[in-house]
Amino acid sequence: MPLSLSNLDKNYLMSGTTTDSFAVLLRRVAPELLPPTTVDTSVPELLRHGRTILAIRYSGGVVVAADLGSALAKRLGQTDIDRILGTDDRCVIGVAGAAGLAGEMIRLFQAEVDHLEKIQGQRISMDGRAVRLSSLVRSNGTMMAQGLAVTPLLAGWDDLAHRGRIFSYDGTGGRTEEHSHACVGSGALFASGVLNEGFRAGMDRDESVTLAIRALGTAISDDTTSSVSGPDLSRGLYPAVTYADSHGVTRFPTEEVAVLAKQVVDQIAAESDREEARS
After folding, report:
1. C-alpha–C-alpha distance, residues 27 and 257, integer Å
2. What is the pLDDT of residues 85-100, one digit of tens each?
3. Which among 257, 254, 244 has a CA at the least distance from the CA of 92?
4. Residue 246 predicted with pLDDT over 70
5. CA–CA separation, 212 vs 65, rounded Å?
6. Which of 29, 102, 171, 202 lies most in the core, judged by the most C-beta atoms within 10 Å?
């Protein structure tokens, strides 16, 4: 039920005490609407989420991709849990972790950006967004101690720098700008090897998406907590892919992802055949 102005702290409504943080506002006037700080860790689905999110810079922007599903989704036949969303027309956030907690962090970050831009009356820079996300990750410290940290990637087009940018985070909210690619989640170790080997400066968008699909496929194959088995051509299951460039944030059409996924599957099969022939 929406809060009326009469229910808000009168001191908050005074200009001298107004904060530009939506999270701080909620903490003061409606803390029950904030994401939980503790959960019941005995629920196995919370600890076994099997998600990998990655971002790759290319010549005209940045690609963000995620494998589909969750541990619980596999049992229920659900494979479209979305963990990458555009917060506006320039920025994308992807979050690895338990589905409910990841979704709440994405929604809170979207509200934080919207609130700040309305207070300041101007668009928030990529650096400003990166700082705001740091504070949200830091507030998840109790969850991190329980083994339930949700780990985000922030990517988008920087109008001032005229290039795509990627920020990764540790569990304490510390942020690092990544100049080529970044990967988080349970399959990050495996995907990172593919990204390190396949990335090159000057890649175009399709080359970056192809590399992302291959990296996610490797992560899913090698990650024992993963809930899906990589691109499934027969069932039409493919990674979720979004890109940000000077024209805005766009979800890569499933049909185009399918074409690139088939190329990756065929290439991997051909490489396997060559390996068998040599042995």
Report:
1. 41
2. 666 788 888 888 766 6
3. 244
4. yes
5. 7
6. 102
